[in-house]
## 1
Amino acid sequence: MLTPPRVTLANLPTPLQPLDRLSEKMGVRIWIKRDDMTDTVACGNKIRKLEYSVGQALEENADVLVTWGGVQSNHCRATAAVAARLGLHAHLLLRGRKPESSDGNLLLDTILGADVNFLDPATYQAMDETYERFSAEYADKGLKTFRIPVGASDEIGLWGYINCAEELKQDFNNAGIEPDAIVSATGSGGTLAGLIIGNALHQLETQIYAFNVCDDEAYFVAKIGEDFERWQDRYQSTLDRSQLTINVIDGYVGPGYGRATPQVFQTIHEVAQLEGIVLDPVYTGKAFDAMLQQIRTGRFSGMNDLVFIHTGGIYGLFPQKDEIIKAI
Ligand SMILES: Cc1ncc(COP(=O)(O)O)c(C=O)c1O
């Protein structure tokens, strides 16, 4: 199999910690993989993927990283941070209107010196054309762009969580555990796809489950299948699609992407008080709350150890401060 170019960016390995008080309450041992500690400004899951996306960009002598996402995109903020750290430029194409004031991730994008455009839905939807237009403008100035898709979820970014699966294997050995399940949130699919492929490649012999925070199960099954095929082609892997099990648990999107119920905020509050770990309302809080509901209804019954991947997102809390305070 071919190996991808990589630039070292994240603080790895991240800790794997038991959540003692919550585990006692829930009757199953819950562990948390602290990928919220991969960095300070570029923290979360995206920096693992960016090690590979930006590794490829550097190999292609790019000057500008162009990527896109929501106004509060963690991925865009991490890209802005990584670009600044490496002396590159970041150009972020954000879906939606410019908010009255910058908060959370958007504030950091600005501090980090990224160029930001707010796109209407049609321009955002037509991303191929939109990207070409921006890329041509940079080319006129003698600068080369590199395109990183939403969430760095493509065959290149997948490597971030394939690599994390290998790291988890070592963590499990160190802790002397054989977890029955690894659980995460899924938004653009790359974290889940990487974990699934990594589970097969590195023989973790566990099950990977994800709770979708947008779209639905069918969307993620198709997306992961497509990304896997591109990955297999590009890096010439002999791994077969039949070796991969995709477990997406649908039904927890709630009021919509980026919007949480009061219960999710209460779970964020409970985990923070009990364990000193802060989840976010868009991804990890929603998925963690869904996992607790599924434990209560018996999905994980008979299992001894569950590992939740804390994929970060803390800066997304700040723009929702009023909703949090109201709910807790
Ligand atoms: C904090 C956080 N957790 C989880 C996810 C989901 O990861 P992925 O996009 O790889 O599915 C994202 C991004 O979408 C994120 O920002």
## 2
Amino acid sequence: MWLLLLDNVNLVRGNKYILKDINAVFETGKIYAILGTNGAGKSSLAYLIMGINGYEPSSGRILLDGEDITNLSITDRAKKGLTLLWQEPVRFQGLTVEQYLTLGGKIKVSNHQIEFILNFVGLSPNLYRHRMVDGLLSGGERKRVELASILLLNPRYAILDEPDSGIDIMSLSMIENVIDYIVKHGGTVIVITHREEIAKLSQEAYLLCNGSILTQGSSDRIIKYYKDRCDECSHVNLPSLEEMRI
Ligand SMILES: Nc1ncnc2c1ncn2[C@@H]1O[C@H](COP(=O)(O)OP(=O)(O)OP(=O)(O)O)[C@@H](O)[C@H]1O
Ligand SMILES: [Mg+2]
């Protein structure tokens, strides 16, 4: 069985644990959800798995199919089939949607495939393939372009950091279809989300709290735990109405 494994990973920045004693297993072909309140460490975990600069573990190992990839560059991890959908999609200058999707012509895809994938993420090919991927695309449009690029890469592991954020609620089924597409093509999905409908697509979930895994297991149980127990915490630091009136 193929898997991605985090072995006692810690991420310390300054004098703070951003991630602490993380042990997690992601098996091929499954869907995993990562839940947790704002600031719990979900994106940091995604960056650490992907090998983003500044998110190298302070200790612990990341293993992919038995190989230690802890010190591999992001490019080498991408070559091994890891990919990340950023919570905030990056803006690019000087590339059309089509050039962006084909990595400037580096990946060979037919016209038909480009059209199919754009339609899949709800972007009309006629309107979008020649538009620039710059600040003029809306947040939701950029997120859709990013989702399209992930589908074209056929990833073995897709880490989707809040794929639903910025996407209108009518299009939630599009996100579900994207996740389904990746798994049907042999990939594993690790989806970070605050939305129950999306979390419910997963079989297993990890609940992060303050950088640690608070609990893990079958998604139904973890989603319930999250809904029942984490609400209080997410309000802990909010000022009371009285305080706000000062
Ligand atoms: N490079 C860094 N240096 C110092 N602190 C960091 C760094 N990256 C993240 N943090 C802190 O670690 C905590 C976790 O951040 P992270 O972005 O992983 O949270 P999150 O669970 O993705 O939250 P959200 O739901 O809001 O996206 C935050 O308090 C953040 O400020
Ligand atoms: Mg985040």
